[in-house]
């Protein structure tokens, strides 16, 4: 790099000098005289000495010298074979060539008269030997400074290392790295959220589970804990040094169980607080999922009950000798089942969704609801991250909600559509019920809200469905109008997004 830099600088200097010389009026006018060298040679030598160049050679368009450091070379042709671009094309350039003084870096410039004709050439050069010597001198100076700096750095690193070992309690760097990796592995493997703060209430550590429970994103290191977490217990532990265990509080619509422990330093007292917390609502969600599975089994039981009733009715027809009606009933049921099964089993290829739809078909038949599965529906097997419990909560609640919306109406119809074309899996459940108004849309997925009247606890189905969709990084939309009832559309990504690392 040093060599290339110096050569480029020398080349630019040589070219700049030669260009300047080519513009000197005295030199241009000297070409008109009988012996131009009388005027040109003193000027060229003076410029050479002032600029430190090895030579400043001026020649005519034939390359005959009018100046040279060695007077014996005057009147002879210039050597090196690198004059053509200046004399024929009028170019200004830098070249390397071997001349009478040795290999050199040269700056070449044409000389023009007032008519714009090329009448001569200026060649200014620095010997490569001198350039190499300058490179060697520069590198020697850099090496001396570098060695001195290295010596000072070694002494400083020894002193700094001794000071660091005191702070790290004599542990080697690889031991510290191992402890750090083990700590991170422990923090990310536990189910509970964990965070630590210092004496001033700034967060020094938080694991991914804590960020998820507190609905935080990005790095939270060195941020005040106030507003991000219920901080009253933490400051109380900082003040008293007494641990707080199994404290129950509500945060972001979640019931959280918190344990706080002080970080003690034998010399300086309390250095900070570590808090671990877990979401009590997880147990509630588990209960909700179990109830959804129970509802799913009840749907299957309803389907069994419906077919049992039809079998008893068929048996009665046969006993009465009404064979024609019996045959018509069998044919009608067979056609309906074949049509339904052709869609469910041929186009819906996931066994979990097949089972859910069969159960809902039975329930719809028992409630006298026309449950239609769109013939354009098509699904491959669900990705591994979409569990049966997710599907039961999402589809079970949305379909049951549609059943309740149309139950008791004159011509109850509920439609189901599914597709996995593209990067999302899409479910659409629509009904021809009374729908809902715009004011209700913002309240539909709120926990405990319901537009239906009754004594039993309500308003959890859509909330649970939305929560299950969000857990799969999906989204759910609701549309309605007075003419077409309600439409719920669910979008679930096929691919799992990677977990973010803790900042």
Automatic annotation (TrEMBL):
Subcellular localization, as worded in the UniProt entry: Cell membrane
Pfam families, per database record: HATPase_c, PAS_9, sCache_3_2, SPOB_a
Highest taxon, organism lineage: Bacteria
Keywords noted in UniProt: ATP-binding, Cell membrane, Kinase, Membrane, Nucleotide-binding, Phosphoprotein, Transferase, Transmembrane, Transmembrane helix, Two-component regulatory system
Principal location class: membrane
Limits of the Histidine kinase domain: 364-496
Enzyme class label: transferase
GO cellular component: plasma membrane
Gene3D superfamilies (UniProt xref): 1.10.287.130, Histidine kinase-like ATPase, C-terminal domain, PAS domain
Membrane topology: Multi-pass membrane protein
Transmembrane segments: 142-161
Keyword Transmembrane helix assigned: yes
One example GO MF annotation: phosphorelay sensor kinase activity
UniProt organism field: Neobacillus citreus
EC number: 2.7.13.3
Protein name: histidine kinase
Catalytic activity: ATP + protein L-histidine = ADP + protein N-phospho-L-histidine
Keyword Transport: no
UniProt cross-references to PANTHER family, sorted A to Z: SENSOR PROTEIN CITS, TWO-COMPONENT HISTIDINE KINASE
SMART domains: HATPase_c
């Amino acid at each position: 790099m040093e060599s290339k830099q110096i050569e480029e600088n020398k080349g630019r200097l040589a070219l700049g000098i030669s260009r300047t010389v080519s513009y000197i009026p005295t030199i241009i006018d000297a070409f008109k005289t009988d012996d131009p060298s009388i005027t040109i040679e003193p000027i060229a030598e003076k410029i050479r000495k002032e600029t430190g160049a090895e030579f400043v050679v001026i020649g005519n368009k034939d390359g005959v010298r009018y100046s040279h450091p060695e007077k014996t070379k005057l009147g002879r042709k210039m050597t090196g074979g690198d004059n053509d671009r200046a004399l024929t094309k009028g170019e200004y350039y830098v070249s390397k060539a071997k001349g009478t003084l040795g290999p050199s870096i040269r700056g070449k410039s044409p000389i023009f008269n007032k008519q714009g004709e090329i009448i001569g050439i200026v060649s200014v050069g620095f010997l490569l030997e001198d350039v190499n010597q300058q490179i060697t001198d520069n590198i020697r100076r850099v090496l001396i400074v570098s060695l001195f700096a290295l010596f000072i750095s070694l002494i400083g690193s020894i002193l700094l290392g001794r000071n660091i070992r005191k702070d790290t309690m004599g542990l080697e760097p690889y031991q510290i790295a191992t402890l750090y990796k083990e700590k991170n592995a422990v923090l990310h493997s536990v189910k509970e959220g964990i965070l630590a703060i210092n004496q001033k209430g700034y967060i020094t550590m938080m694991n991914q589970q804590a960020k998820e429970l507190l609905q935080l994103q990005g790095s939270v290191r060195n941020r005040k804990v106030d507003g991000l977490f219920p901080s009253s217990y933490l400051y109380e532990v900082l003040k008293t040094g007494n641990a707080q265990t199994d404290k129950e509080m509500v945060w972001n619509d979640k019931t959280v169980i918190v344990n706080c422990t002080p970080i003690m330093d034998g010399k300086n007292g309390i250095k900070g607080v570590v808090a671990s917390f877990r979401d009590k609502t997880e147990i509630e969600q588990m209960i909700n999922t179990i109830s959804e599975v129970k509802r799913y089994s009840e749907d299957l039981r309803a389907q069994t009950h419906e077919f049992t009733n039809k079998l008893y009715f068929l048996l009665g027809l046969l006993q009465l000798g009404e064979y024609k009606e019996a045959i018509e009933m069998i044919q009608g049921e067979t056609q309906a089942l074949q049509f339904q099964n052709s869609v469910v089993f041929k186009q819906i290829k996931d066994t979990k969704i097949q089972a859910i739809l069969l159960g809902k078909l039975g329930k719809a038949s028992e409630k006298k609801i026309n449950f239609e599965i769109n013939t354009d529906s098509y699904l491959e097997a669900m990705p591994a991250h979409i569990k049966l419990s997710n599907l039961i909560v999402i589809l079970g609640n949305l379909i049951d909600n549609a059943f309740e919306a149309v139950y008791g109406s004159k011509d109850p119809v509920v439609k189901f559509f599914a597709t996995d074309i593209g990067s999302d899996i899409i479910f659409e459940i629509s009904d021809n019920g009374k729908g809902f108004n715009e004011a209700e849309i913002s309240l539909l997925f709120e926990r405990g809200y319901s537009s239906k009247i009754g004594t039993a606890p309500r308003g959890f189905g859509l909330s649970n469905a939305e929560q299950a969709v969000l857990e799969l990084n999906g989204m759910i939309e609701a549309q309605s109008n007075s003419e077409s009832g309600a439409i719920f559309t669910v979008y679930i990504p096929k691919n799992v997004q990677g977990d973010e690392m803790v900042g």
